[in-house]
């Protein structure tokens, strides 16, 4: 058997081992999902605790109308479009920001809003406003690196290369010269 054949045999054996592992992992995930589903079904169909204590929690004694009501309440609700859901989340975040503008969660909320505007609503102008506010008001926020990158991405999506470059310049000024972020921004600027 040649060296090449032995290498192919080892590679095939490795691939088979990986395939078995992924099948095992998939089976484990499916089994876990089945357990969670079973638990949810049991929890949903259990009579109220007060019914159990009083002895009136027997399903046949509840009657057909009660059983229909339970079945109707377990139907999956209609889901709104992703855009509607995004707007609803943005509205909730704005409400939280208005209620407590000094909240330590404020930059994370603004970032989440910017991401929703950019990714779900394709509204890069609104996203830019959120990201710029973070840079202005919370320059030391732990997630600021992603804000610079998302801001540059939004400017790029609008075709505004001047502001893309300006964003990377600001990123270089924000981070020390020996940092990964500084080197990345420098590379994006072609320096």
Give the strand tally. Answer: 0
CATH superfamily of the largest domain: Tetratricopeptide repeat domain
What number is the mean pLDDT?
81
Rg from alpha-carbon coordinates: 27 Å
The level 1 CATH classification of the largest domain is Mainly Alpha
Sequence stretches where pLDDT stays below 50 over 5 or more residues: 47-59
Distance between the termini: 53 Å
Question: Any chance you could write out the topology, listing elements then pairs?
Answer:
Layout: H1 3-45, H2 49-54, H3 59-62, H4 64-73, H5 82-99, H6 106-119, H7 124-137, H8 144-157, H9 161-174, H10 180-188
Key descriptive features of the protein:
191 residues, mainly alpha, Serine Threonine Protein Phosphatase 5, Tetratricopeptide repeat, flat
């Amino acid at each position: 058997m040649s060296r090449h054949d032995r290498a192919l045999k080892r590679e095939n054996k490795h691939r088979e081992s990986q395939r078995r592992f992924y099948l095992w992992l998939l089976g484990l995930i499916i089994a876990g999902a089945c357990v969670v589903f079973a638990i949810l079904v049991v929890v949903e169909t259990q009579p109220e605790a007060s019914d159990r204590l009083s002895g009136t929690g027997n399903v046949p004694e509840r009657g057909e109308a009660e059983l229909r009501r339970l079945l109707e309440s377990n139907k999956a609700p209609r889901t709104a479009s992703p855009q509607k859901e995004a707007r609803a989340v943005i509205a909730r975040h704005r409400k939280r920001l208005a209620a407590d503008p000094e909240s330590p969660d404020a930059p994370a909320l603004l970032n989440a809003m910017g991401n929703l505007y950019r990714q779900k609503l394709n509204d890069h102008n609104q996203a830019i406003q959120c990201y710029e506010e973070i840079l202005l008001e919370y320059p030391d926020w732990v997630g600021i690196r992603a804000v610079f990158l998302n801001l540059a991405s939004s400017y790029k999506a609008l075709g505004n290369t001047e502001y893309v470059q300006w964003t990377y310049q600001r990123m270089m000024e924000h981070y020390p010269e020996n940092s990964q972020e500084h080197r990345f921004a420098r590379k994006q600027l072609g320096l």
